[in-house]
């Protein structure tokens, strides 16, 4: 039921401004965060995908998301046991920091240790074709937030 409800919400907020305004009024981003913390893989993926879509199509919401601690929450989710769901979390985090200095600054907070986490993830995912998109998001975050490249010579790209 929750997956179908999330699908309906996704359709409403992406298709019309009134749906988005109601979503915001009812603290929909907090609901998405709780869904991403659930034990139901499909619910986690769909909620992270919706978050990424909202960030891309409504960049004006980035400040709201940063103020509610979304960067820290997303990084905590990335630290969980590796899962295909991480691709969507990393995609949402990329969308949150793109053209948004406050998001970049939050990712740079030393207590998050995000740079090291991303470098470790790059090592884990390298040469595994099924995780290429996740690897791309890690490399993008390293470049945007830390102006660094992964630890490998990239001449073969």
UniProtKB/TrEMBL annotation:
A GO molecular function assigned to this protein is: adenyl-nucleotide exchange factor activity
Name a single GO cellular component: endoplasmic reticulum
The record's listing under InterPro entries reads: ARM-like, ARM-type_fold, Armadillo, Hsp70_NEF-Inhibitors
Pfam families, alphabetized: Arm (PF00514)
Q: Which PANTHER family match?
A: HSP70-BINDING PROTEIN 1, PROTEIN FOLDING REGULATOR
Report the protein name in the record.
Answer: Nucleotide exchange factor Fes1 domain-containing protein
Q: In which organism is this protein found?
A: Micrurus lemniscatus lemniscatus
